[in-house]
Please model this.
Amino acid sequence: MVSITKRTQENSEDASKEMLLRSGFFSAFLIWIFSGAILATAQDDDPTDPVSGYNKAISHIQFQRWDEGLKVVNAVIGEHQDGAMERFGPVFGHFFFVKGILLQGKKDLAGAVTAFKTCYEKYPNDSIEGKKQGGNKDIKPNSFRNAALMQWGNTEMQREKWAEAVRLYEEVLKVGKADAKVNKIFVGVNLGRCYLKNGQIDKGYEYLIRPLQNENFSIGLRQTIFVVLAEDWSVEKPFPVVRQFLDAHSRVVDSDTYANRYERNPRFQFLAQSALQGNDPVRALAWFERMVNPKLLTPEIQKNYTQLEARKVVESLEAKKQEALAEMKKQLGKHRTDHLQILNGVGSSHFVMQNFAGSYATFSVLSDIAGKQHKERPVFLHNAVVSASQIEFWKQAYHYGMQFLDEFPDHELKPGVAKVLVEVLFLREEYQDAYD
Model:
């Protein structure tokens, strides 16, 4: 019997979107100064004043005060939107860009799409020359127009509107290729992932494999690309192709620090368990191989725990100290649980492959260290017994078999264990010493 620890796939916002590349977001806002002929100074006491409102909205974004920022931006838009192109020119589109960022912060993705779309489509820069020739010499461009198109694509990607995101990213790479606000590398990576999600598997791979192979790019970017290909490309390809990919590129993630590798463990564990449930144990082992043993992180945490526990702190900090100790103890417990889950997956993979030497090595360890209260203990013992008998480790089969019968006399797996013990005790007379 194979035991597979079930794991809920990460929430799309907390996990899959965690890796979403933001395509540069926007590195900085320029303080928006209108023409002196239009507004000489910011009117701080006027909630609809564009200059004051813009600067206040940027401050609210910096401190993630989404609702306050939206209140300011909506007031300015509501007061000035009619006739804004004539009075202010394309630069008024900045307010819709800012509004989109604020709505992104509130997770109102549909609203953000509308705001970015308005910035891009309603405030183009092609009318600037005509307005200047018409006498408005201080007319200013919509400097965030291409950035709005990029963020529109990012938001559609977050909404999992893959085809629309592909269209927008392809467009921004054309119209924004000379715009410093458009991070073309990140846009290209996002586009590659959207190709994969949109079913254009080979095209997505070709888009992503080039930056993965380029050692001039940051290791963080390449690690993200590796995970994207692991999650969205490898599942569509036969394992020999995936094996070649891993042989060529897995060092990008395997050479990382233990702590960083541990953060990626859940992703590779999900791929491994999915493969195992799909009766592909060889593929499963390849993903288990990418995972770091959580026990490697334990010594550092234990050291920190011991040092903090012995440290004297003032009474006002005692609660913080105890909170930190409790968190480290929680981490240690999670490391143990995660270690058992990895062993279980590895053992189950070997068991399915009928590599009983490998499955015995794993399930015997699990039987010894998991503890009698572990919910999967009957399975661990059963698999240890069956694996041991298959490689003719009769004493070991007897040892774990008797533990099973003592602890779980009424368990549904008892017949299988009992059958093995009968073979050990009565069909192999040269193993009479098993009675001792």
About this structure: Residues 315-352 form the longest helix (38 residues). Residues 385 and 401 are 6 Å apart (CA to CA).
